[in-house]
Specification:
CATH class: Alpha Beta
Radius of gyration: 19 Å
Order of helices and strands: EEEHEHEHEEEEHHEHHHEHEHEHEHH
Strand order of the largest sheet: 3-4-5-10-11-12-13-14
Helix content: 25-40%
CATH superfamily: Aldolase class I
Shape: globular
CATH topology: TIM Barrel
Number of helices: 13
Distance between the termini: 29 Å
Number of domains: 1
Strand content: 5-15%
């Protein structure tokens, strides 16, 4: 019987366990999008994960979502990330860079530019973090056909920069209402050109973005994260099974390292997608509850359904040594969510490690 603590071979690396640290925005870079020494400490503390997926990193200034989030567009940014990847590797870990283009989930106060999207449709009931505080997501400017191709192509240089920065691979962020997800979503994508309308056309941007990364660094180093049917940040999919079956079928021809699915729709649909996807599957189960800390029951269920790896998000924030705590059944600390995005080291690198006190126990 497969367990979370078994080794697994992937094209990125042989992983010592099947636990993935999911990408989580923590807003600890500086105003120039540079990774910091504290970020190096944060990720190195969590190097016991079989694989770490970094927070979302923007591939162009236009693609930045929130303030104090990092980029991979300048040599200074690449250099700043080397301290992070070196620290993770020195601690025995492996880390991939999640490339995240915000699309319409941005604000002029953050980037100095009007956000862009598949169509000029604002995300409903979504508040953006900005330097002036929370503000409603503005209406984006619709990308022209040529501009859409250019934004998809921007994932290539970002992937190359990630490898130059020492990352072991890259994950294209195709989930949670960001630009790739916006092109998939029928309520955000009202286009009538080759990037919109039919299911095939709505998947084009995602395939081109992934293909750009593959051309830059090789398919064996590229994964993608998707959130079928989740509707997060007002990116609403219709025809979920057809849409994601088409997308995964097209992506399977590229020979990617993995697909990372969020459990945002019914299990039967996700099991059909598992049948469609022939390669390594990372599953991000449903949100943990008080009776199932860190989603362990769901993790075991998805391993039984054929997932190869299981990703955990918030459980890693207050439990840097989450893998060992899960292995030994130790109590899990609970993070102070007021400190998720507040900047500084408190609630970031201050949670105990190496057998220290567990802090706020569940």
């Amino acid at each position: 019987m497969t367990t979370l603590f078994d080794t697994v071979n992937t094209s990125i690396a042989t992983l010592p366990n099947r636990i993935v640290m999911a990408p989580m925005t923590r807003a600890r870079s500086d105003g120039d999008g540079l990774a910091s020494a504290s970020m190096a400490t944060y990720y190195a503390q969590r190097a016991g994960a079989g694989l770490i997926v970094s927070e979302g990193i923007w591939p162009s200034r236009l693609g930045q979502s929130n303030p104090m989030t990092p980029g991979l567009t300048t040599e200074a940014q690449v250099r700043s990330w080397r301290q992070v990847t070196s620290a993770v590797h020195a601690a025995g870990g492996r880390i991939v860079a999640q490339i995240q283009h915000a699309g319409r989930l941005s604000h002029p106060d953050t980037t100095g530019q009007q956000p862009v999207g598949p169509s000029a449709v604002a995300a409903r009931d979504v508040m953006m973090f900005t330097p002036a505080g929370p503000q409603p997501a503005p209406a984006p400017r619709a990308l022209t056909t040529d501009e859409a191709a250019d934004e998809a192509a921007s994932f290539g240089p970002a992937a190359r920069a990630a490898i130059e920065a020492g990352f072991d691979g890259v994950e294209v962020h195709g989930a949670n209402g960001y630009l790739v997800s916006q092109f998939l979503a029928s309520n955000a994508n009202l286009r009538t050109d080759r990037y919109g309308g039919s299911v095939e056309a709505r998947t084009r941007f995602a395939v081109e973005a992934v293909a750009a990364a593959v051309e830059a660094v090789g398919a064996e180093r590229v994964g993608i994260r998707l959130s079928p049917g989740a509707g997060i940040q007002d990116a609403v999919d219709t025809d979920v099974t057809e849409l994601y079956t088409t997308l995964l079928t097209r992506l399977s021809a590229l020979g990617l390292a993995y697909v990372h699915l969020e459990e945002g729709t019914d299990e039967d649909t996700l099991l059909r997608l598992r049948d469609v996807w022939p390669g390594t599957l990372v599953m991000n189960p449903s949100v943990p509850t008080a009776t199932t800390p860190a989603g362990l029951d769901d993790a075991e269920r998805w391993l039984g359904h054929g997932a190869d790896l299981i990703s955990f998000g918030r459980a890693f924030i207050a439990n840097p040594e989450l893998v060992e705590r899960l292995r030994t059944g130790s109590p899990l600390a609970v993070a102070d969510d007021a400190l998720y995005y507040m900047g500084g080291d408190d609630g970031y690198i201050t949670y105990p490690t190496s057998g220290g006190p567990a802090g706020l126990t569940a």
